[in-house]
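Researcher: Let's do a round of design. I'm pasting the structure tokens now; please hold your answer until I've finished.
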């Protein structure tokens, strides 16, 4: 087998998939068609991160010496556990189907970059298409006794007036809102706010363009996060977002349905780790992004 040491496998599964190896293997062994393309690639490529252009040459020996395929399978049968063997065989059976679906999805994801000149970005077009009510934005919670709230409102109004100069923006600029909701419970009791947001969302109280997968309490909060403690990546359902991006890239990504707040958090740490930002001080809130660029396993 070409698998690296277990510790390396665990590190890569966590970094690229947010899963443990055991959870990944359980999914591949019992429900292979539910594997995502990255999950499939990590198993198929023996937990090695291989660029697209290098994948063909890595497995060229299998085509040049066909007998080795049979010997390889014999070796796998003799050394792998039943679960590991089931994982390998299942991935072999579904890999091409998952790859085909994934590449269709990635073409759809980047279709917006090919929109004709003068056409609004898709996320702005979606707001325009709301027709009579083009309201869009977020729910912002604030404690009734919050010190400095009035000063914050002044700054927030400036953020609402901020321009992106994107095509079509003029049609939706004045309908941009921050739906402010005061509360008087303990500020640290996020569970109360999540339940309140859930009730408003499920009760149909949020207008079409108000995002229903995040809300704000200074930081952005994932309303569906239920754990009382951070997960293995340190994610606790919250993330700071730079004010210049709240009504631009962050809204674009979160309204697309293609990303979660955890994806945005991973992007924040990836940008910081690779120093992909034009400043000397490391950002303390999500601002610069690589979410709209091809990443492994598509690069």
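Researcher: That's everything. Go ahead.
Model: Designed sequence:
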């Amino acid at each position: 087998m070409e698998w690296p040491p277990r510790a390396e496998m665990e590190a890569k599964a966590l970094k690229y998939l947010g899963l443990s190896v055991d959870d990944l293997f359980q999914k591949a062994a019992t429900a292979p068609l539910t594997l995502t393309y990255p999950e499939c690639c990590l198993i198929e490529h023996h937990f090695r991160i291989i660029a697209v252009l290098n994948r063909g040459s890595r497995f060229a020996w299998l085509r040049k010496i066909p007998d080795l395929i049979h010997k390889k399978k014999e070796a796998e049968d003799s050394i792998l556990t039943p679960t590991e063997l089931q994982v390998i065989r299942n991935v072999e059976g579904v890999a091409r189907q998952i790859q085909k679906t994934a590449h269709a999805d990635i073409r759809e994801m980047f279709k917006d970059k090919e929109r004709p000149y003068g056409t609004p970005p898709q996320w702005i077009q979606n707001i325009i298409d709301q027709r009579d009510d083009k309201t869009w934005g977020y729910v912002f919670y604030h404690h009734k006794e919050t010190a400095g709230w009035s000063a914050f409102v002044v700054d927030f109004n400036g953020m609402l007036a901020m321009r992106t100069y994107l095509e079509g923006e003029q049609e939706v600029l004045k309908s941009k809102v921050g739906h402010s909701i005061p509360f008087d419970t303990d500020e640290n009791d996020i569970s109360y706010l999540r339940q309140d947001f859930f009730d408003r969302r499920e009760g149909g109280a949020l207008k079409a363009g108000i995002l229903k997968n995040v809300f704000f309490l200074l930081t952005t909060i994932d309303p569906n996060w239920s754990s009382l403690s951070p997960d293995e990546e340190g994610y606790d359902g919250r993330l700071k977002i730079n004010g210049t991006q709240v009504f631009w890239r962050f809204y674009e990504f979160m309204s697309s349905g293609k990303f979660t707040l955890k994806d945005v958090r991973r992007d924040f740490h990836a940008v910081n780790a690779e120093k992909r930002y034009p400043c000397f001080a490391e950002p303390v809130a999500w601002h610069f992004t690589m979410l709209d660029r091809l990443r492994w396993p598509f690069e």
